[in-house]
User: Fold these one by one.
Assistant:
Number 1:
Amino acid sequence: MSNDPNYRSVTCQASPNIALIKYWGKRNDEFILPDNDSLSITLDLNDLYSYTTVSTSSSMTSDTFYFDGIQQTKLSGRMQKVLNEVRRRSNKDNQIKFVEIRSHNTFPESTGLASSASAYASLAIALTNLFNLDNPQSTAAYLARIGSGSAVRSVYGGFVRWSSEGECLSSCIYPVDHWSELRIIILIFNSSKKPVSSTDAMQRTRETSTLFQARLSTINEKIEKLIEAIKIKDFNTFAEIVMKDSSQFHAVCMDTYPPVIYLNEQSKHLIDLVHAYNRMDGNKIMKVAYTFDAGPNPFCFIRQEHVEEFLRLLKYFYPTTNDDVHGEVSDVKEEFSSIKLPIMANAVERIVRTKIGSGPKIIP
Ligand code: PMV
């Protein structure tokens, strides 16, 4: 392929984002226009990412897609939609014929870890660069969005807002270093595929949930309060808004008919554990906040100064026979004995420690 003078290739790395205020509901399925604004944190590229290489040459005779090195029999409808939009936007002398896409993730798919967000963000940015498309940032955001809604937020680093109005694109509201002591600890309780896809579940929610409208009417006020808390780094307010939005989102899923249930026994245990842990100091300072996407695995937000203690708490309540899960964390005895919750042995498959990231990167 490298002998072909028309061969060109671009690689991009992007990470997932974790919604602090969830997107749930599409008012337009084709263009993925959301019912509500959402707010997220993009994770650090050093810990979790999708890596996508796109290439083109005059000798290619069809679009091809390799995932983890294995050629897929066909491209998904969404991937095809993204490529068609790229073809529509690329000008005459840069006419694209076919594209080869090679992608891999460093984390399990379909676990509520938003692997589609990082995958489509990296694909969108790589394609925008490969074909020199106009207005690269907004074009990449648009392409990412029509691939997978929440991917629009992974196009930027730091704290990102996805607007439900106007062009419905995303923007960075605070950069990566704004709140540098914030850390994210992800507990993987279960890495199997989610029972209902977010696309199907959202549609079912729109059709059947009465709580859904009530949720929509409070979102903007909640986002403004959260942005203010982030601005002044007020972790107590941040934690309360984030946890309440997670619970409200899952309440709406429960209010959907038939109900959509993403949380499991371990998720509920973690929720109780976080509240009990925060109460240990009389609730004056919140140490941890959790949020759950469309899956049972919690994303915990915490300031750096509390990380070691929280990891000891996790080791105490989630002991495991797999030494890799807790790594170097020291053993605990009496420290958390005031918390009267059951010990859940072998509940955790993996713990990922990460932080806010600066956004996608083109790999030379
Ligand atoms: O972009 P999708 O279709 O994977 O939907 C994501 C929905 C949530 O993860 C539950 C919330 C969000 O805003 O990311």
Number 2:
Amino acid sequence: MRRILVAGNWKMNGSTTQVDALLTGIKQGAAGVQHADLVVCPPFVYLQQVAAQLAGSSIAWGAQTVSKEQAGAFTGEVSAEMLKDFQCRYVIIGHSERRSLYGETDVMVAEKYAAVRKAGLTPILCVGELLAEREAGQTEAVVARQLDAVIALNGIVALADGVIAYEPVWAIGTGKTASPQQAQEVHAFIRSRIAAQDVAVATQVQILYGGSMKPDNAAELLAMPDIDGGLIGGASLKAEDFLAIGRAAPAS
Ligand code: PEP
């Protein structure tokens, strides 16, 4: 049975003081989250602080992006091996903000997926359609294209080492959430597309939903059969909201 994963994407938010307060709050309430694993993904500069504060806790941490390169003359970049140095377990790959604001293509995302796996870390691969694409009936085609690029470079079995996050772009940071049925439809599509190549991988892979998941809609979303957790933006910046989403996870 797949366990629920609740991952917080802090984006470019925080200060040492705020990180301290947020982690203190999450640690205090983590024992109340019985049916989900928790992960936080701070900006790179706070990874050392996060590693120190969460060491020995049940909460894992990760990064929000990574370089596809291993080392060398790549100013401003951070490699997967470096992230490992800070005991990161997860790396978010291909978030829609990286795709739209920083020009990350499907191929670049696939290369980053490879770099993360090579370092022994777990990629959280984001896929999802724009509003115009949904309205044009292209949701499945877009998600399939994003997924297939990763499979083409890494092989289907590589998905067993990763996590997928379905994030409809129109729902990210907008307060609009996909309905549980809309989300379930796409999650089931993703799982069936993987199953067409490898049933075992499809059964195992965790597929998270992301897009304005909050304490008041988490239980309904997490109750859907193919939704295995959440990638949380805004609500992950408040310890109580993040924990409440974790508590909404059903027993498996
Ligand atoms: C995200 O950025 O991955 C996200 C899901 O953000 P929000 O929860 O704020 O919509």
Number 3:
Amino acid sequence: MLIVHNPHHDDHQGRQEMFRGHLVPCHETASRLEIVLDALRAGGRSSFATPGEADMAVLRRVHSARYLDFLAGAWDEWVALAPSNAGLDVLPSVWPVRGFRADVVPDTFAARVGLYSFDCGTPLTAGTWSAARAGAACAIDAARAVATASGPRAAMALTRPPGHHAGPDFFGGYCFLNNAAIAAQVLLDAGARRVAVLDVDYHHGNGTQSIFYERADVFTLSVHGDPRTEYPFFLGHADETGQGAGAGFNLNLPLPVGTGFPAWLAAVETALGRLAAAGAEAMVVALGVDTFEGDPISSFRVASEDFLRLGRTLRGAGVPTVFTLEGGYAVEALGRNVANVLDGFEA
Ligand code: SP5
Ligand code: ZN
């Protein structure tokens, strides 16, 4: 398996996220990627690459032009508000909820940050655009490698910040550019007639669902904590099945807090059955390992060894596969957990 890792990931290092009235240290840290890379290297893997420049035309097939322009310019606008802002991260504080207008883009930067985001836990920093853009490049290069006839059968975009909460024109959930959606679009553009994105992160892949909700060429499937109690709360219910041309091409399998490995794996197998029945010719796995029993912000009970079995099960889909790194916040176990998925996949 080819591992395309992001050499600019540590340009993005958020300081604090809002949690119940406090600003607390960000869970999504730069050490996450380093520990996974170290574990994969220690496991004797040899196929590593860093990406070329991100193809902006591909990004525009997934995200709106005005959102991409916002991300590219956000830091300079923030510092232009006050030079002292250079020492602070950007967090939104006002959002256009029901009844407000999102069609008129405000001139004021603080308002625009809210227009393009959905939570207060995702700081935007001086290096966010650089890191996210290089991460998208990892997804593009991983997908292009897998789509090449002589290329590897599987590849991983090993990157952060993660992507699956980022929608067509919004960031949130520690995510800015939707790497899994970008990989899916590249696989389609390379000739696959239908691609599936299977999201096994603890949290619902709301961004990916929103990007493809009215499309039949990408089947989005997500196994996750029930949004009635779990982040991102406002999407991810079982009755969201797609719309218009996309009707029938979105599957959500929410599971209760405390779900253990057997029930979780059964849901993944259900998703894989639907994926095969839909004739998906390639698969993107949005791989969050925050389903781990020791994860500090999640509540499933998957053990490190169980991730080997997940990998074997995913292999059973029998299609070219691109993995993207999403969540997983038990940093000490993160390397082992991700390596186990890939080892199980290749066993
Ligand atoms: C990519 C990804 O996994 N994003 C997840 C974003 C979750 N953000 C909200 C975190 C809320 C933290 N709750 C702490 C509960 C401690 N018991
Ligand atoms: Zn997650």
